[in-house]
Amino acid sequence: MVRKLAYLLIILAVLTAAGELCGLLLPTLSWPFTVSREMSMLHIVCADQNNSGLLTPQGKFLWFGWACVLVMAGAGLWIRLKGPRRFRPTPITKRRLQRFKSISRGYVSLVILLALTLLACMDQCLVGKRALLVIQDGSWYFPAIMRKVYKGSTFGQTGDFADAEANYRELKKQAGQPGKPSLVVMPLVPYDPTGDSTNPGSEALVVNEEGLVCEADGKPYSGLASRLHKDEEALPHISYKFRKGKKVDRATGWLEDRTEVYSATYENNKIVAEHYNGPGTKEDFLKQTDENKISRIFYHPAPPLKGGHLLGTNTQGADILAYLYGGLQVNMKAAIFYLPIVYFIGITFGMMMGYFGGMFDLGMQRLIEIFSQVPFLFIIMIISDMVPLHMKGMFLIISLLIMFGWMSMTYQLRTSTMKEKARDYVAAARVVGASTNRILFVHILPNLVAILVTLVPFSVSALILALASLDYLGFGLPDTYASWGRLLNDGLADLSASWVVTSAFSALVITLLLVTFIGEAVREAFDPKKFTTYK
Predict the structure, then answer these.
(1) pLDDT tens figures, 228-238
(2) Do you find a cis peptide bond into 301, omega within 30 degrees of 0?
(3) pTM for the whole thing?
(4) Residue 217 and residue 174 in one domain
(5) Same-domain status, 385 and 440
């Protein structure tokens, strides 16, 4: 088990480095290099771009990405060379694990959370606007896992798409046509979590024998509907207002460049007055589209199942399912960086306070009390206002959360360390000449694992809630990151689009419930009273 973990870390480090050197965008593994590219503090711009193959084409040395590679490789090598050969749980640990499995609510929650984590690791292979595979004239392309951006002209697209990045969703519709790819394979959700606004969707209405405009179930339609220039873009030609299937009130018409040139007034499905001031004749303008081909346009935020969006869209036109997936990834990545650092600081200072005591203990307690009284939200507001836009991101937010997140666990570790240092095994370690570091981290720390394991799930839930709260208030991550808190804010700002706030609230509550159920099960399973006999 231990060796497998070591080999896994080494393999992941090698794949991450090889992917960067080969220009690949591997799911999850390439994320450290992607973040290093985006944030100026995480890379170094070199004047001489020809000295090393480690530089990007823009002359950037991505030190953060390479540091993550070294950490993974170093951890794998250390575990392989210095770590135990196999994991041998003690009888008490086995009973604790069995007890945890017997608590079905916590065990099932852990399985579900691990499944969600696995889905989040699939990244652009599951959710993204780039195609997984494009076959064009016998050549195979893999845009989703390549950093290279393919232009639309590569796949036969013309117009605005020729010199821009290819629109793979349109290519999917055109697959098999002359001059177009023979096969286009898209991810399960073909939208990016952010920065991928889609065109409004549309739904065709039916004109019955009586000339009434009806919905698909035959019910006369009431509301706005339009004749469209282009169905795929939901570009309106003439927009009408219907009441029980009949045209009423004002109608408006536009050219393809969205210039308003036509207006008319209807009463009981009959035209009363009309005016046209565009190029050509009115008759030519009206013949541009079929008068019996009328569609209902779903402007953003669009409801679920409309326009190919399972959960609908938000006010910016982003697919909500893709946005929720991006928010899940952000929470997972934040936890990966937040937990090790916070627990390293908290464990170190908490154990030192309990072991040394005296002035060091009193000084640290007073320092923690001072920091605990600092208004966290005000600090975030001040720093967010002072830091330049290009320096804002997950790195800054996680750093601020770490500054205040380590203090809560120190008192528990302090108390447990004070109790453990009075035991005979610590005195024996001192007699044989063990150093302070060895006593703390080799002898005492293993006896505090039960406390740490119990605290981890609640730290995760606190982190998720903190990120959502800051984003809801507007002091969190930039718009380039998907955030459940920001989506919740958008939904509450427009309660008529109830699916937006419902999706954000459901994702947040379900995730917090899963983590809380796991935490309660772990706390009960590792409760020492369950396995202690008093005499």
Answers:
(1) 988 777 888 99
(2) yes
(3) 0.88
(4) no
(5) yes
